[in-house]
Amino acid sequence: MSDAIADAKRALRADLRERRQNLSSSARDAAAAGIRSQLDALVERVGARSISCFLSTPTEPGTREFVNAAVARGIRVLLPVTRADGLLDWAVAGDGDDIVEGMFGLPEPVGELLSPMAVNDVDLLVIPAAAVDRTGMRLGWGRGYFDKTIGSMENCPPVYAVIFDSELVDDVPRDLHDQPVTGVVTPTQTLELAPTRR
């Protein structure tokens, strides 16, 4: 990655991080309710019976209500567990799972771990992002876990990034390893931005 791209990514991430930290608790609650509604509708539209999702941190658009409701409806939800080698293991979400602080301070489930290959069986990937541009290019938080996951899948299902409305931008800095997403889910809308790769 060139220094200019790395610097641009760092600057944009810092700005987005600060904006997220300045959101009020009522704005966060409203965003979580909107995300749940949008994700419920997306799962229904795709006809997904098995999905991957993530447990949101306090500053991310909330996904936990959605995950709990999906599990209660009988949808198989795989949650990521970070590994030191840059890959993701997966755990099946259960009702009332224990959550621990994983690598990088991210919330992760406690339970039996499935290999990185487990995600190949899902109908829909729901992933975190710092921002997404209008071509579907995603800016993550710089560790590359989801770029590696998406890039390694032979038959990748639709991939939707969860962001706040203001984080859908005209352009994000990109490098060769960065992977686009099919679309975004925000508290107010679900948009398809790029064709699904098959």
Distinctive features:
198 residues; alpha/beta; Rossmann fold; 4 helices; 12 strands; 29% helix; 22% strand
Short note summarizing the structure:
The chain is an alpha/beta fold and 198 residues long. Helix content is 29%, strand content 22%. The longest helix has 22 residues, at 25-46.
Using the CA coordinates, give the radius of gyration. Answer: 16 Å
Report the count of strand segments. Answer: 12
Major sheet summary line = 7 strands, mixed
- pLDDT < 50 stretches: none
- What's the overall geometry? globular
In round numbers, the mean pLDDT is: 92
**CATH architecture label name:** 3-Layer(aba) Sandwich
**What is the end-to-end distance?**
27 Å
Organism: Microbacterium terricola
Protein name: 5-formyltetrahydrofolate cyclo-ligase
Catalytic activity: (6S)-5-formyl-5,6,7,8-tetrahydrofolate + ATP = (6R)-5,10-methenyltetrahydrofolate + ADP + phosphate
Family: Belongs to the 5-formyltetrahydrofolate cyclo-ligase family.
